[in-house]
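Tokens help. One example:
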Amino acid sequence: MLTNPTIDMLRELGLNGMATAFQELDAQSEARGLEHGEWLAILLEREATMRRQKRFEARARAAKLRHDAQIENADFRAARGLDRNLFMALAGCDWIRKHHSLLITGPAGVGKSWLACALGHKACREDFSVAYHRVPRLFATLALARGDGRYGRILKSLAKTDLLILD
């Protein structure tokens, strides 16, 4: 099989996930018995997975979440009044799809920011655009933006965001 030219062409076309999967499959003797359609399905699945992961990573970087919080790591045992069923329903992100708002309230130090970041992280995984802003810093940025002409552009960017977290 002409593996090197094929791999080179896949990489040239920007199909790095397929190229990596092709190399791995070609190295496995049992994979040589697969039908062409099975090979293609495996290569396409790997490419799609890699692209989804890259999109997620880009959205997570752009979101600038304060905490690397994961829904799976939420502690429901602590006495902070967190309803597991409600939080898991919120993690489904249907409220974002319906363009609803969410206000997380509670005393200082109970993990409101962490919960917001966990929901933001999940929203990134679900293909939503997310932006995290500390309110004092955002207001300062907006005040400066009024003077240098970026105010409208910043507001437009905030308005386009699927999930805007204000902390």
User: Anything to note?
Assistant: The two ends are 56 Å apart (CA to CA).
